Amino acid sequence: MRIACIYIPRFMVEAERQRRKEIGSRLVLIGDARVLGCSLGAEAVGIRTGMRMSEAIALSHSAVVLPPDGSHYVRRFGEVLGLLGELSPEVEPGDPGLAYLSLAGLAQRAQTFADDLITSLHRQFGFMASVGVAGGKFAARVAAVTSRSGIAKVVPAGEERALLAPLPCTYLPADEAMLWRLQLLGLEKIGDIAALPLGAFQQQFGPQGKRCWELAQGGDDEPLAPHVAESTVARRLEMPAPAVALEAILAGLERLTFAAYGDEVRQGRWVRKAVARAGLYGGGDWELPIAFREALADPKAAWFVIKTAVTRRPPERAVEELEIELVGLSGESGKQSALFESKGKLRRQVEEAARHLGANGKPAIGRIVEVEPWSRIPERRAALEDLN
Amino acid sequence: MVTDTRAASGAGRPELTTGRLRPLNSPQLLEVDAGANGVPAGLYLSGHRRAVESVIETWRIDDEWWREQPVSRVYWRLFLENGCALDVYRDAVCGRWYKQAYTG
C-alpha cells in the first residue's frame, strides 16, 4: 500500500512564529527546563532538542525563549489533520508536525498529489511541509524527513531499500544501547545492516534487531492506525480587557457553555467532557479538561460542574481569551434507566450535588437513617449518614 | 453553642458519632427564665430574649433509670411571642434547660 508522510519541520516554532509576529526572524527556543523545540538558526549554533535550557541560552544569548503551549500546537495540527482528512479517509497523526496518509485508490499520480498537498498546506495554514511517498510508513517518513521543506519525494515501488541504504542507522527505531553497539560493530549505514543475514543480526539484537533488519530491507508492513475524527463544539470569546477577577472569567465561561450547548452541531446529544481554555496575558495558555461523571445534555448541569472545577483551579494569570470546547458528543446518556424514573432522577441529582459539594473533603450532604425509631428519647431515633 | 457532654451523649450512652454517622437532633443548652412554679416565662435565642406567650403542652420522660446517668426530662412545647412554637426540656437530673425538637 502506498503511503504518504507529511512532515512539517519545527512545527512548534512555526506555530509560534505565526501567532507572535513580534519575534520575526529571531532565534526561538521553546521549553521549560529543557529545550522541546528550536528554530533552524538555533540548531545551527549547536542547540538540540532535549538540551538543558540554560546550556541552550548560553549558546545563543539573543534567542527568544517561549514556554511550551501544547494545546495550541495540538489545535493547530488538528487543523492540518482536518485538511488531510478531506484528501484521504485514512490519516494517522504522529507527533505535531508529522502525519501519514493512505494513498490507496488514488486516481492521480502520487507526485502530483504530493506537490498539490504541499501547496494546499502552505496556502491554507502557512506551513511549509515536505512529503515522502513510499510503500511503507518507515520509508515514507525517512523520505519526508530527509527532503527539504516544500519538496515531495516519491520513492518508486521496490526502491525503498536503495533510498535507505546510504542513510545512518540513527533513522532506525533503535534504542541508544543498540545504536551504540551498532557503532562498535562498525555498522554505520542502514545498508550495512541490510547486507547481513537476518539470523545472525537477530541473534545479536533480538526482536528489535529483527524489526530494524526488516526496515533496512525496505519492507514495512505496519498498518496505518487511522485517526478517528471526533465531533466537537467550541466557542471562543475575546475579553475586552485582560480579566483577573474570577467572577469575570466565570461569567465569560458561563456564556460560552450555554452558547456551545446551543450549537446545532450538538443536535441534542449528550456531552461527556468539556475543556475550558484561556489565552493568558503575556503569552501562554491555560487549559482545564473537565470530564463529566455522566454524559450531560443539560447546559445548567454542565455549567455547575465546569464552574466548580474552574473555581478550584482558576487561571493563574490575567485572561485575554476564553474558550469552551465540548467533546465526546454522544447519542447515549450512558445512564441506566431506573424502574421509577422520577425517583432515580432525583437520586442522581442529589448524588451529583453531594459529589461536588463534598469535593473539598468535608461531608456536605447526608441521609437520615433510623437508629432507634421507637425510642422516646429524640436524639436516639435517627442519625445523619454522610453521603460522600 | 455550649458543649454539654450530657446532652451530646444523650445521657449515659456512648457518643453516637462515628466515621459516617453523625448525631441528629442533639439537645442544645438553653437559658430559660422559669417562674417559681417551674413554668418557663421567657428564654434566650441567639442572645435575644423571647417571652413565652403560652404553654401548648408538657410531658415527662423517665427512662434508663438503671444506668449511671438516667434520663429524666420534663418537656414543654411553648408558643413564643414572635409566633413560633418551640420544644424545650428541663433535665431533672442536672437541672439544666435544653432546646430539642420532639416529634411523634
Q: What would your notes on this structure say?
A:
The complex is a heterodimer of chains A (388) and B (104). Chain A is of the alpha+beta class and 388 residues long. Chain A has 14 helices and 14 strands. In chain A, the strands form four sheets. Chain A has a five-stranded mixed sheet. In chain A, strands 9-12-10-11 form a four-stranded antiparallel sheet, covered by helices on one side. A three-stranded mixed sheet of chain A has the order 3-2-4. In chain A, helix 11 runs antiparallel to helix 12. Chain A is elongated, with a radius of gyration of 28 Å. By secondary structure, chain B is mainly β. Chain B has a six-stranded antiparallel beta barrel. Chain B has one helix and seven strands. About 10% of the residues of chain B have low confidence. In chain B, 16% of the residues are buried. Chain B is globular, with a radius of gyration of 14 Å. Helices cover 5% and strands 50% of the residues of chain B. At the A-B interface, strand 13, helix 14 and strand 14 of A face strand 1 of B.
